[in-house]
Amino acid sequence: MQYEIRALDTHRRVVSLTMDAADAASASACVEAQGLAVLSAREHNRLHAVVPALAQLFNSRFPLLQFTQELVALLRAGLSLPETLDVMIEKEVRAEVRQIFERIRTSLYNGQSMSQALQGCTGIFSDLYIATVKASERTGDLAESLLRYIEYKERLDLVRKKVVSASIYPVVLLCVGTLVTLFLLGYVVPRFSLIYTEQGRNLPWLSRLLLDWGGLINTHGWMIAAVGVLGVVLLIALGRQLPVLARRLSWHVPALRRWLLIYHLARFYRSMAMLLRGGIPIVGALGMLNTLLPDDLRATLDAATQRIREGVAVSHAMTETGLTTPVAARMLRVGERSGDMAGMMDRIAAFHDEELARWVDWFTKLFEPLLMAIIGIVIGGIVLLMYMPIFELAGSLT
């Protein structure tokens, strides 16, 4: 497998290499053996060479994780922050990303801190990211703080990837089953309806209902197709709102609410652990994480924050407001006694991540065969209803 490596040579110049290796770690080790400092290593994307415009479309978002990795590597190589940005601007090929780098560098030259420069890039850097940088400015360990953020982001992405990979097969299966059903209802059934209309036979009522649909397609097919296309266009137009609506509906389903709560709590506690390790007081960290939780839990977090300001222990405040599970509440009490709240919150997040991963695995193993059975019953029922009059005719002849 080929990997694209960006590294810093002995003259502090960024070089790009392409090499074959078993994985990214092996590729990085080979480059480091040549005396180079690795900035980033990623799988070679053939899309860049074959379809540049399409590649540009897929990479239009700001590469926050890659930016952070390169920033850490250059800072640890001994470059100052302005020098680091100079190097990144020099080698950046995407105009919109280069403009962001230049804006940050200009802010630094104007006397602003790194956190203020990032805050000036509206909508690109999250409050959590800016808070991490701001906390590091008090201690002077920007590279170490960003390393903690990279680890935090990779753990979150790992959970998200597990959920996405587990949902790929059911989604593909559902799409194929839907397409087959639409083909039967839109092409096969209308032709059968013509045959049975000419025969003029008495049909079972379910078969008549299905064949009436076929007659409707024959008569008003273009109108129905136009309505279908309009519906698809409307769904695409509402594409960004659909996930939000789905999450809100899922939140009110008791069977899903518990697991959604565990997912959000795992993210919440992992983020808290990272901020506490960065030296941010717990009340300040809670205020920064308000936007990380869904709307239904933000008021709850505000109430917990107020209780902590009043002097209530963190474990009691979280338990009273419903921002814990039984396991998390016990672990928080242990963290209060030991004084290691950051480490204990990290363990809470890891425990809930594993619990969520086990549930996703169990759910997909149950849902996939159930979905196949439902699709098989729908398609089989349509075929059976189409051929039922033929079966009756054959039975009357015998």
Task: Please explain how this structure is put together.
The protein has 398 residues and is mainly alpha-helical. The protein folds into 2 domains: 1-44; 148-398, Up-down Bundle (Receptor-associated Protein). Helices cover 77% and strands 5% of the residues. It is built from 17 helices and 3 strands. A 3-stranded antiparallel β-sheet has the order 2-1-3.
Total number of domains: 2
The topology string of helices and strands comes to EEHEHHHHHHHHHHHHHHHH
Question: Major sheet: order of its strands?
Answer: 2-1-3
Largest sheet: 3 strands, antiparallel
Share of helical residues: over 70%
The named CATH superfamily of the largest domain? Type II secretion system (T2SS), domain F
The termini sit apart by 65 Å
Structural features:
398 residues; mainly alpha; Receptor-associated Protein; three-stranded antiparallel β-sheet; 17 helices
Q: Mind sketching the topology for me?
A:
Elements: E1 2-8, E2 14-20, H1 24-33, E3 37-43, H2 46-50, H3 52-58, H4 64-76, H5 81-91, H6 95-109, H7 114-119, H8 127-139, H9 142-199, H10 205-237, H11 241-251, H12 254-277, H13 282-288, H14 295-309, H15 314-320, H16 326-338, H17 341-397
Antiparallel strand pairs: 1-2, 1-3
